[in-house]
């Protein structure tokens, strides 16, 4: 809504500018001072409207606006002390009351409703402003109720494969969508460049250890999924497979051996807590929990009925890690989900609840968001089936819209394994060799 209002404000400014240019050529020579004042007032109004709309939408702009305001600035400083560890101790007696008052006042400022964009410059700074206001410990906000990113429009159709729109130029077919996805990425400059970049970063040995650089690998993965349009990234990651070789290549898309796998699976609770301690990872997790929130009574299986948004939120978790200084090998990713096996809808993060003790229920609830989530399950299966992402209430069989067996029976026209592997692999330097 705010984005549309901003566009309207810009259009108003252009129309006023055009109108007053004509007005100035005809009447203004006789009323110079009056016209000049009128033009200045109108331009000032339109500019102010644009600034207000932009500030209310961007947390960085809203934070700058608040910091320069003598009334808002001290409240923002108070709030930052409240959320900074033992901030209540620094504030002294009555700290909780001061924090509550600061939050209440700032919710009436341009900070209210501000958002950030995934992959934006200074993303962490933007998110720190958002979470300062919506810190769950102070404001009681549940992660599933909101998240700081701009929402994916419900009409966005990421369910259609990229090759459908490009087949006239590339000569692609839908017989093997994983192969088509690789072809489509290879002819797109941005997709091909960033895919080559992350594959190279994830398979190249680092120093004398011979191990990959996990931090560099995840950074390259984040760049790929944040900057390349979903019509390419989703086709590469969620394309349907009808044989084991294809399924394994699909699982290897994000190079699990470097990006997240460790000798032993860590606790899911440890991953969750580590993620929530990082502004960006916490925000991606909040987006995933919101957009993939299941609801049995919904025709789609999703509370918000948007498969596209769910898949965008899922990919936002890939490559999110909490760095460890101790060892590159154990600097794992807190969440990074991937295929647990060769089944289309069986995805999970690299973690376990086996040693969660009396917190087993909390751990299982977190893991179930990936492994037993009707919304995510349907989003993956419907994408693989190439179906529209907005089911009608009459579609009652929500749990299993299409099975892997159905996909095997309906697929045809396979290319040879050598050809498929060559096309599916991005062009990388000959010096870079995959470790066996």
UniProtKB/TrEMBL annotation:
<keyword id="KW-0325">Glycoprotein</keyword>
<dbReference type="GO" id="GO:0043235">
    <property type="term" value="C:receptor complex"/>
</dbReference>
<comment type="similarity">
    <text>Belongs to the GDNFR family.</text>
</comment>
<keyword id="KW-0732">Signal</keyword>
<dbReference type="InterPro" id="IPR016017">
    <property type="entry name" value="GDNF/GAS1"/>
</dbReference>
<feature type="domain" description="GDNF/GAS1">
    <location>
        <begin position="178"/>
        <end position="258"/>
    </location>
</feature>
<dbReference type="GO" id="GO:0009897">
    <property type="term" value="C:external side of plasma membrane"/>
</dbReference>
<feature type="compositionally biased region" description="Basic and acidic residues">
    <location>
        <begin position="396"/>
        <end position="408"/>
    </location>
</feature>
<dbReference type="GO" id="GO:0007399">
    <property type="term" value="P:nervous system development"/>
</dbReference>
<feature type="region of interest" description="Disordered">
    <location>
        <begin position="390"/>
        <end position="436"/>
    </location>
</feature>
<feature type="domain" description="GDNF/GAS1">
    <location>
        <begin position="268"/>
        <end position="375"/>
    </location>
</feature>
<keyword id="KW-1003">Cell membrane</keyword>
<keyword id="KW-0336">GPI-anchor</keyword>
<keyword id="KW-0675">Receptor</keyword>
<dbReference type="Pfam" id="PF02351">
    <property type="entry name" value="GDNF"/>
</dbReference>
<protein>
    <recommendedName>
        <fullName>GDNF/GAS1 domain-containing protein</fullName>
    </recommendedName>
</protein>
<dbReference type="InterPro" id="IPR037193">
    <property type="entry name" value="GDNF_alpha"/>
</dbReference>
<keyword id="KW-0449">Lipoprotein</keyword>
<keyword id="KW-0472">Membrane</keyword>
<dbReference type="GO" id="GO:0007169">
    <property type="term" value="P:cell surface receptor protein tyrosine kinase signaling pathway"/>
</dbReference>
<feature type="domain" description="GDNF/GAS1">
    <location>
        <begin position="59"/>
        <end position="138"/>
    </location>
</feature>
<dbReference type="GO" id="GO:0038023">
    <property type="term" value="F:signaling receptor activity"/>
</dbReference>
<dbReference type="InterPro" id="IPR003438">
    <property type="entry name" value="GDNF_rcpt"/>
</dbReference>
């Amino acid at each position: 809504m705010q984005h549309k209002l901003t566009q309207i404000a810009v259009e108003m400014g252009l129309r006023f500018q055009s109108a007053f240019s004509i007005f100035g050529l005809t009447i203004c020579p006789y009323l110079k001072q009056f016209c000049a004042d009128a033009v200045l007032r109108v331009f000032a109004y339109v500019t102010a409207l644009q600034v207000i709309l932009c500030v209310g939408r961007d947390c960085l702009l809203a934070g700058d606006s608040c910091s320069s305001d003598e009334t808002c600035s001290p409240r923002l400083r108070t709030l930052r002390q409240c959320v900074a560890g033992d901030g209540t101790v620094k504030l002294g007696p009555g700290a909780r009351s001061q924090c509550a008052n600061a939050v209440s006042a700032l919710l009436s400022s341009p900070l209210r409703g501000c958002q950030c964009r995934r992959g934006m410059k200074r993303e962490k700074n933007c998110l720190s402003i958002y979470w300062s206001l919506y810190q769950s410990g102070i404001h009681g906000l549940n992660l599933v109720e909101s998240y700081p990113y701009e929402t994916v429009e419900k009409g966005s159709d990421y369910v259609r494969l990229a090759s459908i729109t490009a087949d006239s130029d590339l000569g692609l077919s839908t017989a093997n969508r994983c192969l088509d996805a690789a072809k489509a990425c290879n002819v797109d400059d941005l997709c091909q460049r960033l895919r080559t970049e992350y594959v190279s970063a994830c398979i190249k040995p680092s120093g004398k250890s011979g191990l990959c650089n996990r931090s560099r690998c995840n950074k390259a993965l984040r760049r790929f999924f944040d900057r390349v349009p979903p019509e390419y990234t989703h086709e590469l990651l969620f394309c349907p497979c009808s044989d084991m070789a294809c399924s394994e290549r699909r699982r290897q898309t994000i190079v699990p051996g470097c990006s997240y796998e460790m000798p032993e699976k860590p606790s899911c609770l440890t991953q969750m807590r580590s993620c929530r301690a990082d502004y960006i990872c916490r925000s991606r997790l909040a987006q995933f929990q919101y957009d993939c929130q299941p609801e049995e009574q919904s025709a789609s299986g999703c509370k918000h009925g948007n498969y596209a948004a769910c898949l965008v939120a899922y990919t936002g978790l890939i490559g999110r890690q909490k760095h460890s200084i101790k060892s590159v090998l154990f600097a794992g990713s807190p969440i990074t989900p991937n295929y647990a096996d060769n089944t289309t809808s069986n995805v999970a993060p690299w973690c376990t609840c086996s040693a969660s003790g009396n917190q087993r229920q909390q751990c299982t609830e977190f893991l179930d968001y990936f492994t037993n989530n009707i919304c995510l399950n349907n989003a993956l299966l419907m994408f693989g089936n190439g179906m529209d992402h907005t089911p009608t209430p009459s579609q009652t069989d929500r749990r299993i819209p299409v099975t892997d067996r159905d996909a095997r029976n309906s697929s045809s026209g396979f290319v040879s394994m050598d050809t498929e592997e060559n096309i599916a692999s991005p062009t990388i330097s000959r010096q870079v060799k995959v470790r066996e």
